[in-house]
Design goal:
The two termini are 20 Å apart. This protein has nine helices and ten strands. Helix content is 42%, strand content 15%. It is an alpha/beta fold. The chain has a single domain (3-252), classed as TIM Barrel (Alpha-Beta Barrel), CATH 3.20.20.
Length: 258
């Protein structure tokens, strides 16, 4: 791997290692580009009270995130290109305000990582992996991803197969085909996620990537690094992904920031 745009920091409360250690690991692994995309802070409206998620960066930590990565970008210039992004969900009620906050603060790109169906602060929201038989939520989740692809606001879609639906394979393929077709039409890549391979999670889901191959959607590889060591052995883990590329005829692309 020469580039990875899916990298977290300790600010999300479930990663380890310093920002510098991630950059040094990427250099040691021979990467030419490292994009940081920690779980984004969100500016929730007053109606949600003092809601804070325990798995994302807090807004007050965001300036330090940008300052740290900017300094590392300058220090390692000529050795590796460092970019500043975020992994973010799309919550319509508060996305616009959050988007402005992030862009004004120096964010270069957004990865869509839609971990919830519905706004996570709402009582009706569900975690994407929690209800594998919920057809209604699966459709809602898919609708959100398609809308985000069409918006042109996202660099790529992280783990697009994160919604765990296992009730009907035919319906699953018909539904995720909409994501794959939108990806191809708008040239927004879909990420095959190495953390899923590493942790033997329910994703990457073979049925999803079978459809992606049939449609011809552009596909990238993301490390989803939560530890600097995940960058050091990324090539080894990526071998499993490359076997799936071969099996499903996936169209690999190397993403580049405009």
């Amino acid at each position: 791997m020469i580039a990875n745009y899916h990298t977290h920091t300790t600010r999300c409360n479930h990663a380890v290692g310093t920002d510098r250690e991630y950059v040094e690991a990427a250099v040691a692994a021979g990467m030419k580009t490292l994009g940081f995309s920690d779980h984004s802070p969100y500016i929730f409206p007053e109606e949600f009270g003092n809601y804070y998620s325990g798995f994302r960066m807090r807004p007050e930590a965001f300036p330090g995130y940008v300052q740290s990565l900017t300094a590392l970008r300058d220090e390692f210039k000529g050795k590796i290109d460092v970019h500043i992004g975020v992994e973010i969900e799309y919550y319509p009620v508060c996305f616009e305000k959050t988007e402005k906050f992030l862009k004004d603060g120096g964010v270069e790109y957004f990865l869509l990582g839609q971990h919830f169906t519905g706004n996570e602060a709402d009582a009706g929201a569900i975690y994407a992996g929690s209800q594998p038989g919920n057809r209604e939520k699966f459709v809602e989740h898919t609708d959100t991803i398609v809308k985000c692809i069409e918006s042109g606001k996202f660099f790529y879609i992280a783990h697009p197969d994160v919604f765990r639906y296992e009730a009907d394979d035919v319906f699953y393929k018909e539904t995720v085909a909409r994501i794959c077709e939108a990806s191809k039409k708008h040239n927004v890549p879909l990420e095959i996620n190495l953390l899923g391979y590493r942790g033997r999670r329910y994703y990457p889901k073979p049925l999803f990537w079978q459809v992606a191959g049939e449609v011809g959607a552009p596909v990238v590889i993301g490390v989803d690094a939560h530890d600097p060591g995940m960058l050091l052995d990324a090539d080894e883990v990526a071998e499993a992904a490359m076997r799936d590329f071969a099996e499903y005829g996936l169209k690999y692309v190397e993403p580049e920031l405009g």
